[in-house]
């Protein structure tokens, strides 16, 4: 199911000659839940990209703040998918990536949260790198800043520690960073890669879904962070993932155990390295927390669930969602073949 001819062809004049040139087709996917005003700001920023998108898809995760009606009123050209229940960020992106591939030819899918506001040249900078990058580049990510213009510590890319020195140096010379993982704050994914590896694991619900999925995409391939592509992540505070997570710490622990046990995203060596880093971060998170009892309870139940259960297939987690269920099934059946 190759998609090399997905993009449009345009006529380009070189001297006295007209030639045809491939133009990548890009679809943006935004997953939304009860952040209506931020979502509308994100959509407007996508509409104002200096390189126009071919489509914008919004996955509304059963918002209760009038999100769907607001999108229909402010941006009727947006393709709106309304889910009947909240499937979390993981389920929303599984549906969104599947929706982007449904009934259309597409080269790249640009996935982001509803509190991501791309600067006007964010897309053109991603494409500039994508069109010149090595052929095995399946994922790119933007530089993520907070509202003050400083890098957001929650989304700071880390160089791939497993890449050869020559490969890291080559990326540096090209003005990019060779990375092993990326974030759904702004993840630019080759459509063929989605068809090859499938979709995010919806049962993660929140936390580590983008880590697992991006690592799965990049394993044996290449991922790049593009500093020239800038998006603003409008979180309430400029904090890292070490900031007090409250009850959500359960998802962090359970999902990381699931990743270690069942995911093919990381090699055995990588699981050891990232596992050690994770344990250090958990200790730091609990030590700095203002609500340690909640985190201790989240760790205890998350650790237990992680070892006693495993992620359910997307076909079960995302069942009974109508066309969303069918779109997910179509992508995953093709990936298995």
Automatic annotation (TrEMBL):
<dbReference type="InterPro" id="IPR001173">
    <property type="entry name" value="Glyco_trans_2-like"/>
</dbReference>
<comment type="pathway">
    <text>Cell wall biogenesis; cell wall polysaccharide biosynthesis.</text>
</comment>
<comment type="similarity">
    <text>Belongs to the glycosyltransferase 2 family.</text>
</comment>
<keyword id="KW-0808">Transferase</keyword>
<feature type="domain" description="Glycosyltransferase 2-like">
    <location>
        <begin position="29"/>
        <end position="154"/>
    </location>
</feature>
<dbReference type="Pfam" id="PF00535">
    <property type="entry name" value="Glycos_transf_2"/>
</dbReference>
<keyword id="KW-0328">Glycosyltransferase</keyword>
<dbReference type="InterPro" id="IPR029044">
    <property type="entry name" value="Nucleotide-diphossugar_trans"/>
</dbReference>
<protein>
    <submittedName>
        <fullName>Glycosyl transferase</fullName>
    </submittedName>
</protein>
<dbReference type="GO" id="GO:0016757">
    <property type="term" value="F:glycosyltransferase activity"/>
</dbReference>
């Amino acid at each position: 199911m190759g998609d090399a001819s997905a993009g449009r062809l345009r006529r380009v004049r070189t001297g006295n000659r007209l030639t045809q040139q491939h133009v990548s087709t890009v679809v943006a996917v935004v997953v939304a839940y009860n952040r209506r005003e931020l979502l509308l700001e994100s959509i407007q920023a996508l509409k104002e990209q200096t390189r126009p998108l071919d489509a914008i898809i919004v996955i509304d995760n059963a918002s209760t703040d009038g999100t769907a009606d607001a999108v229909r009123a402010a941006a009727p050209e947006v393709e709106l998918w309304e889910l009947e229940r909240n499937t979390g960020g993981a389920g929303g992106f599984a549906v969104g990536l599947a929706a982007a591939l449904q009934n259309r030819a597409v080269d790249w899918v640009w996935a982001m949260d509803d509190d991501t506001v791309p600067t006007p040249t964010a897309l053109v900078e991603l494409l500039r790198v994508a069109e010149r990058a090595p052929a095995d580049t399946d994922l790119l990510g933007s530089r993520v800043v907070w509202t003050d213009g400083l890098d957001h510590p929650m989304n700071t890319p880390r160089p791939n520690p497993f890449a050869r020195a020559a490969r890291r140096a080559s990326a540096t010379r090209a003005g990019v960073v060779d990375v092993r993982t990326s974030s759904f704050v702004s993840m630019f994914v080759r459509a063929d890669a989605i068809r090859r590896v499938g979709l995010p694991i919806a049962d993660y619900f929140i936390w580590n879904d983008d880590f697992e999925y991006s690592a799965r995409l990049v394993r044996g391939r290449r991922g790049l962070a593009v500093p020239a592509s800038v998006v603003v992540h409008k979180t309430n505070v400029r904090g890292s993932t070490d900031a007090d997570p409250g009850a959500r710490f359960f998802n962090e622990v359970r999902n990381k155990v699931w990743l270690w046990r069942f995911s093919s995203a990381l090699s055995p060596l990588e699981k050891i390295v990232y596992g050690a880093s994770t344990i250090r971060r958990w200790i730091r998170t609990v030590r700095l927390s203002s609500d340690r009892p909640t985190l201790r309870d989240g760790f205890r139940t998350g650790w237990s669930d992680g070892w006693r259960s495993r992620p359910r297939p997307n076909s079960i987690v995302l069942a009974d969602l109508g066309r969303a269920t069918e779109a997910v099934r179509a992508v995953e059946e093709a990936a298995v073949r």
